[in-house]
Amino acid sequence: MKEDKAPMTARDAIEGRVAVRRFMPGPVPLDVVRDILRTASHAPSGANLQPWRVYVVAGATKAALCAQVETAHRHHAEAHAEEYPYYPDAGLEPYASRKRQFGQVFYGALGIQPDDVQGRARQTARNFRFFDAPVGMVFTIDRRLAQGSWLDYGMFLQNVMLAARACGLDTCPQVSIARFHKVLRCCLAIPDDELVLCGMSLGYADTSAPELAIRQSRLPVDAFASFQGFDAAAA
Ligand SMILES: Cc1cc2nc3c(=O)[nH]c(=O)nc-3n(C[C@H](O)[C@H](O)[C@H](O)COP(=O)(O)O)c2cc1C
């Protein structure tokens, strides 16, 4: 019998996207990944520069890459550093409070107590296996490009996540893996003139994951937008 399911709207995809950190083991076919990236490449970019470059890994290649990154993380993490600052200085408000709130909600859903340093570290380490997703992606940018291209890049990344939703797949963007860019560079033959921005897990969500029962909150519109020049009568 034909399934009578309404197609996913853009709003469904945007509001239904969450960072998924637990995946089913089943593979994602290469043509589906290609299709997601092709759709995502419709992202706008200033003068159509299209600054994105993606390294996609699966199967034994992903396993070998993750083994190297996990070894680096476990044994000499201090020898590795991000190529660019992603987070602001610790303590900068209101962002420090928002980060704290994220941690409370996320680790709370996992049953990891605030003082359980090892529990948090174990969860963090799952980043370096792409959360056991069948597909891992590493995103790089030509380091000669200007800040504007980073703006474009964000739109591409969001498109990847939304296109994945349209294919019934889920994602987790991951800046944490960028710290190990030297390992990624070596394993994936990433040239020195490319800067590693972030990674992303891609796969079919394990819907039994307890953290999927929670949602990270968003500020109300009036907390980040101001409106001027609207006709009061029409409002
Ligand atoms: C560029 C970027 C990098 C991120 N890096 C990580 C990461 O390294 N590990 C992780 O678990 N989540 C990471 N996240 C996911 C965020 O924590 C998540 O998007 C945020 O808490 C909002 O939750 P939601 O995406 O489920 O709505 C990242 C998100 C973005 C946009």
UniProtKB/TrEMBL annotation:
**What Gene3D superfamilies has UniProt attached to this entry?**
NADH Oxidase (3.40.109.10)
In its keyword annotation, does this UniProt entry include Cell membrane?
no
Tell me where in this chain the Nitroreductase domain is found: 14-204
Q: Name one Pfam family in it.
A: Nitroreductase
Q: Which UniProt keywords apply?
A: Flavoprotein, FMN, Oxidoreductase
GO molecular-function term, one example from the UniProt record:
oxidoreductase activity
Q: What is this protein called?
A: Nitroreductase domain-containing protein
